[in-house]
Amino acid sequence: MKKKIVSALILALALTSAIALTGCGSKESDEKVIKVGATPAPHAEVLEVVKDKLAEEGYTLEIVEYNDYILPNRAVSEGEIDANYFQHISYLNNYNEENETDLMSAGSIHYEPFALYPGKTASIDSLADGAKIAVPNDGTNEGRALKLLEAEGLIELDPDAGFLATKLDIVKNPKKLEIVEMEAAQLPRVLTDVDMAVINGNYAIDAGLNLSDAIAVEADDSEAAEAYANVVAVKKGNENSDKIKALVEALQSEEVRKFMEETYGGAVVPLF
Questions:
Q1: pLDDT in tens, 76-99
Q2: Thinking of the domain 32-112+229-270, which architecture would CATH place it in?
Q3: Residue 92 and residue 83: Cα distance in Å, rounded?
Q4: Is domain 115-226 annotated with CATH 3.40.190.10?
Q5: Could you tell me which residues come within 8 angstroms of residue 106 by beta carbon, excluding any fewer than 6 positions away?
Q6: pTM score > 0.90 for this model?
Q7: How many CA atoms lie within 13 A of 243 on its CB side?
Q8: Fewest C-beta atoms under 10 Å: which of 45, 73, 150, 177?
């Protein structure tokens, strides 16, 4: 009986040790895996560029692709991914305010100029009264799109509305343009159904649209260039972790700068 008890105790201790070692191994492994959420272009494409660089430092980069602007932030908040790279800082701040979250930027990477693309109508001079112009319907992006239309002399906005303007803030609309609000991801798909559309840089790239074909583009030195820096977003408190620092450093490398400049024809502007 004593031998059986001793054997059982030895077995139990062995199992406990095995579980503890497995747990330690898992924790150590997690610290070397960087799981990042991103929209397909340009963000996921840029992340692919730094995979090897991070591997040389002992990190495995896992890219999780999303096709909307809500799930990547929710995934960071809930700890499903370590970071995301898809949004500009103004959108992130607005998301935090609306959802009572505490996500924050770990570093600015690039800027994507908004552009006005032709649909049924090829030029601003050809726009008829009542023409339809599609814009993104989310928070800061709609205001940004309307600012571009204002810069082209098509509308005038209430100056107090700022980048949070909606079509309700239009105070002058001489051509009585119909502003069509819709989800940003849908804009390239409806381009042939409207006269023009102001399209987010990442969705324009993903749809194969060239900045050179745009009717109007945000100026690199505009207020928008500063307000809409695309960032790596993380949960507050994680911005100084070793793996997030390694990720940001890799994304702010000369290799990435060269890739952006050679690949996107001015549609993605490095900010480092």
A1: 999 999 999 999 999 999 999 999
A2: 3-Layer(aba) Sandwich (3.40)
A3: 13
A4: yes
A5: 83, 231, 232, 233, 234, 238, 239, 244, 245, 247, 248
A6: no
A7: 21
A8: 150
